[in-house]
Design goal:
The chain is α+β, with helices and mostly antiparallel strands and 175 residues long. It has five helices and six strands, in the order ββαββαβαααβ. The chain has a four-stranded antiparallel beta sheet, covered by helices on one side. The protein has a two-stranded parallel ribbon with strand order 5-6.
């Protein structure tokens, strides 16, 4: 249920089904609306369709039936790369660039979007995920697994993202 005071777009699944060749059903008739700015957890056993459902938001997987909408617009409209640039991702295996500092890893999306002065935004994003700003000059291999995961979250939260999707299984919390 969208809230006019929320930040970020709403995401809706309308009778979404994903059926693979051979008849295996990964997602079966899911209808769900997530308000903009909401934090939602999809909980289920391995193979229950959680990641498949998330991958339908950015069209990495196309539903066999039903509609996926962001702010009321069908995600199938427009170019997939443009849609994907509006969505932040936190990968299960983190995916930091080992040859770049933490600050450079966080800033990569900002730079790709044309940002020049990224230091202040990187500092704010590190603060948001409870990492000291001094970590910006460290290399990823100098961090714990949980710290690397939070760097991945900070990178996904860069400005102008439509939404943020994560398949992480960690109990880490973000304020």
């Amino acid at each position: 249920m969208p809230d006019s005071h929320s930040t970020g777009p709403s995401v809706a699944f309308d009778a979404v089904t994903k059926r693979y060749r051979g008849g295996a059903v990964a997602v079966d008739d899911v209808s769900l609306e997530i308000a903009g700015g909401a934090f939602v957890a999809l909980v289920g056993s391995s193979g229950s369709g959680k990641s498949t459902l998330l991958k339908m938001i950015n069209r990495l997987i196309v539903p066999s039936a039903g509609l996926v909408r962001i702010d009321g617009t069908d995600v199938a409209e427009g170019a997939a790369p443009a849609l994907r640039r509006r969505i932040g991702y936190v990968f299960q295996n983190i995916g930091l660039f080992p040859h770049m500092t933490v600050g450079e890893n966080v800033a990569i999306g900002l730079r790709l979007a044309g940002g020049r002065d990224t230091a202040a935004r990187v500092a704010a994003l590190l603060d948001l995920v409870d990492l000291p700003q001094a970590f910006a000059v460290r290399m990823p291999d100098a961090l714990s697994g949980g710290q690397r995961q939070r760097v991945g979250v900070a990178r996904a939260l860069r400005p102008r993202r439509g939404c943020c999707c994560s398949t992480n299984r960690s109990a880490r919390s973000i304020r």
